[in-house]
Amino acid sequence: MPEKRRKFSPEFKDEAVREVLSSGCSVAEVARGLAVNEVTLGNWIRSYRLKNPVTEPELSVHERARLRELEREVIQLRAEAAFLGKAAAYFAQKQR
User: Fold this and answer.
1) Residue 90 is part of which domain span?
2) Phi and psi angles of residue 68, each rounded to the nearest 5 degrees, phi first
């Protein structure tokens, strides 16, 4: 005989989601503590996040300038790392 599906109140779902988001515990830990399937709790969290998106504060002019500067630096460092990798491979091959 199949098991009867459990129904959870919206208040219970909200409290479970708040516990995961505020406690720092994993979804699995909270789900075990509440005797709920972790996939179910994960679905509740996903639904909550879709309904309540977190908006990031707009960057100031100084922050945007710093971000552009850091992005340029990342591009430069990636190019240097690629060059050094190729140079190391060349010299390793030449040693043979």
Assistant:
1) 56-96
2) -60, -40
φ/ψ of residue 34, rounded to 5 = -100, 0
Q: Does residue 5 fall inside a structural domain?
A: no
The gap between the terminal CA atoms of the chain, to the nearest Å, is 72
0.70 cut: is pTM over it? no
Q: What is d(CA 12, CA 51) in angstroms, rounded to the nearest whole number?
A: 17
Q: pLDDT-derived band of residue 6, with 50, 70 and 90 as boundaries?
A: confident
What's the pLDDT tens digit per position in 46-74?
A: 999 999 888 778 889 999 999 999 999 99
74 CB-side CA count, 13 A:
6
Q: For residue 37, give both structure tokens.
A: 């399937």
Span 7-23, pLDDT tens digits: 999 999 999 999 999 98
Do residues 19 and 35 share a domain?
yes
Residue 64 identity: R
Work out how many domains the chain is built from and give that number.
2
